[in-house]
Write a structure and sequence with these properties.
Elements lengths: L2 E3 L2 E6 L2 E6 L5 E6 L3 E9 H6 L1 E8 L16 E9 H11 L9 E2 L11 H17 L3 H23 L1 E5 L2 E7 L3 E8 L3 E7 L2 H5 L2 E10 L2 E11 H12 L8
Antiparallel strand pairs: 1-2, 2-3, 3-4, 5-6, 5-11, 6-7, 8-9, 9-10, 10-11, 12-13, 13-14
Helix pairs in contact: 3-4
């Protein structure tokens, strides 16, 4: 299987992913598929409008074969840098046949809406008022504009973020500042799980969760904030393997 995009070529053979790119200085990367810890789709808001995306692998580093020029040492490998979303999954599914790549069930609790931006908004507003008191008033208007953008972005977070659990595979979709990040990973790749909740979240029956996977020679955290407590507890049971969940 071959995909080319401006000298970017991906081939797969014998459980090895071979990537080459570059015009004058050609880079060649070989990634054993068994080192892949997660598959990540990164899609900016602009790319989403036109149906394009990019696919990346999160991998572990081979410390027995250390090479300071190895571009995989940070644990991120770009597999498909710029491609139509539908075509991307047509290509990536045969490369990772053990993964289902289910769609994410989007939607987060509205009770967590203001929590995504109120601290930043408060800091901006207080800072702008102080500046306006000693200098000019226009920073206040700028702060109000930024707060409005943050509030709008939080609506997108609520509507578009989410997760799907299907058997031993979990999909988590995060809304970032300039786009979306969707991470697919298997139960057997998990190193740990962390739950976080303060009294204010407990009162609203909300909870934060983070799953930990290996990345390069370290680790990476993948999670969501302000989830329904019952859903997070179900994820905890899945992580601990107390019962089998076909889907949530």
């Amino acid at each position: 299987m071959i995909f080319k995009n401006f000298n970017y070529t991906v081939t797969e053979s014998d459980q090895q992913l071979n990537i080459s790119y570059g015009l004058f200085n050609v880079k060649n990367i070989t990634v054993p598929i068994n080192r892949v810890q997660a598959v990540v789709e990164k899609q900016s808001f602009l790319r989403k409008m036109f149906g394009y995306t990019s696919i990346h692998f999160t991998i572990t580093s081979d410390m027995d074969d250390f090479d300071k020029d190895d571009v995989t040492l940070n644990g991120n490998v770009t597999v498909l840098p710029f491609i139509k979303q539908q075509k991307a999954y047509e290509i990536i599914k045969p490369l990772m046949p053990n993964m289902k790549f289910q769609s994410v069930q989007q939607g987060m609790p509205w009770s967590g809406y203001h929590r995504y931006f109120w601290i930043q908004s408060l800091i901006l507003l207080i800072s702008s008022i102080i500046v306006a008191y000693f200098w000019q008033v226009w920073p206040v208007y700028l702060a109000l504009f930024i707060i409005a953008i943050l509030a709008l972005h939080s609506i997108i977070v609520i509507k578009k973020s989410g997760y799907t659990l299907d058997g031993d595979e979990l999909v988590i979709k995060n809304t970032k500042l300039f786009g979306f990040k969707t991470t697919y990973f298997k139960h057997d790749k998990l190193l740990g799980m962390e739950l976080k909740r303060n009294p204010f979240l407990a009162r609203k029956q909300l909870m934060n969760f983070v799953f930990i996977i290996a990345k390069a020679s370290g680790k990476q955290e993948i999670g969501l904030k302000y989830n329904k407590q019952g859903h997070v507890e179900a994820l905890k049971e899945w992580y601990l393997r107390r019962e089998e969940h076909e889907s949530i």
